[in-house]
Amino acid sequence: LMGCYADVVFAAVHNSGHALQYASDKMRANKSIVLAAVTQAGSSLLFSHDSLKSDKDVVLAAVKQDGLLLKLAHNSLRADTDVVVAALECMGLSVPGGSTVKDMILLAVQHFGHALELAPDELRADRRFVLEAVQARPGALKYAMGGLNEDDECLKTAGR
Predict the structure, then answer these.
(1) Residues 6+ apart with CB under 8 A from 92
(2) pLDDT of res. 55
(3) Share of the chain residues as helix, strand and coil, in percent rounded to the nearest 5
(4) Own/partner pairs, 19-27, CB within 8 angstroms, 24+ separation
(5) 102 class by beta-carbon count within 10 Å (0-12 exposed, 13-18 middle, 19+ buried)
(6) Which of 18, 20, 27, 141 is 20 to 30 A away from residue 42, measured at CA?
(7) What letter would DSSP give residue 40?
(8) pTM
């Protein structure tokens, strides 16, 4: 019976990725079903089991449709060069070869202040990096971590 249910869910998400939100937890943790869903509608990553938010194939399929979905990925994938490049290219940014994740996120922040939200936690809590980001886009400060959004120098740099 479960195989039959999986076939029905697979067909449903293949037709409309958002159908994943109605699937059982077990189906939301099934890689082939979630991969079909995010390939059809990247934003269905939101409904996938947390374990698949650290699966590179699943996250790549999602961020190739909407780069902002990188914020839903596990922290380790937000630090993965291939995943970050795919996300930023989907956002229309040209990523120079040899760029580090730090360089790429800074490039993204210069274009979209909210892109700091896509960065791995270590960067969002890195004072020097956050200062650079906030200098480029003061609004990025709200995505800082580790108390940096209340840090005097960061606030001053953001003009607050």
Answers:
(1) none
(2) 98
(3) 75, 0, 25
(4) 20/44, 20/47, 20/48, 21/46, 21/47, 23/47, 25/49
(5) middle
(6) 141
(7) H
(8) 0.91
